[in-house]
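The record is given unchanged here:
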Amino acid sequence: MSSCCDKPKPEKEAKTVESSCCAPVVETSCCPSEKNQRDYLLWVSGSIVLVCYLLGFWFPDGETLPRWLTVMSGGIFELFNTMWWGLVAAVVFVGLLERIPRELIMATLGRGGTVKGVARATFAGLLLDLCSHGILMVGTKLYQKGASLGQLMAFLIASPWNSLSLTIIMFTLIGFKWTLLYISLSLLIGLISGVIFDRLVTRGVLNANPASPDDGSLEQSPAVWPELKKLFATASFTPRSIKDLLWDGLKDSRMVFRWLFFGLVLATAIRAFVPLDTYNALFGPTLVGLLLTLVAATIIEVCSEGSTPIAADLVMRAGAPGNGFTFLMAGIATDYTEIMILKDLTKSWKIALFLPLVTLPQVLVLGWILNQMPL
C-alpha cells in the first residue's frame, strides 16, 4: 500500500502501477492509476474550442455577439480550418510510426548523440509537410521510439514552417532569396541546437531518453530500405486496418491535443484584447524592434500557417527581415504548447525550459544580422 492511500483493501488483488501521487506503488481502490483520471484540461479546452468554432460558423459576421467573443470565435474558426489537414496528417504519421519497429526507426534516424544522427533528424523535420502542432505529435512518437534528446530538438526546431506548402507561400510573400535564407538558417539552428542538447546529456546536465537503444542494438540495426519494402509488401490496407491506424494515432496524440486546444483558447483571447496592429507599428529593423518581436512571438500563440503571413508582413511592411525570421523561430522556441508537451514527454521542466535557453540567443544574433542586410 502506498503512502498516499489511507485504507488498504485486502480483498482486492494488488498490482504494481505508476501513480501520479507516488512512485511505483501498489494500486488499490483508493489510489487509482493515472489512466483512470479525467483529463480536465483536455475536455474544458476542447469544449471551448468546439463552442467557439460553432459560433464562428453560425455567426461569421459576429453581428449578434460581443466583440471579444467575435474575435475569439472567428480566430478559432480560421486557425482550425487552416491547421486541420496538418493535424489529420500527423495522426496518420503517428499511427504509422506505431506500426514500424523501433529498430527500423532508430536505423533511419541514425545513432543518437552524434552529429550525423542530429543532421538526419534535422532534415527529416524539414521534409515532413506538417504544421507546428502536427509535428509535435510525430516528434513525441519518435522520442518514445528511442530518438535522442538532441534528435528530438533538431526535428522540432527545423520542421514547423519549413513544409512544402508554407515554403511556396513564403516564396510568393517575401521572394526566393529570403525564403531560401530563412530555410538555411533554421536548419543551421536546428543542427547546432541538437548537438548542444546531446552534449548536455553526455555531460549529465540533462537526462537522457530512457527509451534510447544501447550501442549494441545500434550495431545490429537493420538495413532501412529493404525493411521498409518488406513492411509495405506485407501491409494490410483494409477498412478495419485503416480504422485501427487512425484510432491508435488519435490516442497517442492525446497529449498534444490537450495543449493545442489550450493554446488556441489562450491565443485567440490575446487576439481579442491586444490589437495586432499595435505590434506592426513598433517592429522596425532596430534592436528595440527585434526585442519587441521576441516579446510578441512569445505572447502570440499561432500555428505555423498563421505565423507565416505575420512574418512576411514584418519583412515587407516594417522592412525588417530579421524580425520576420525571429518571429518564426522564436515562436517555436517560446511556444508554451510545445514547452508544456516537452515537459510532459520528458517528465522534466529543466529539459523543456532549455529549449528557449539554447535556441533564442542564436535566433536573436541571426535576426540582428539579417536586419543589417538590404531588402
Summary: The chain has a mean pLDDT of 75. The CA atoms of residues 181 and 322 lie 11 Å apart.
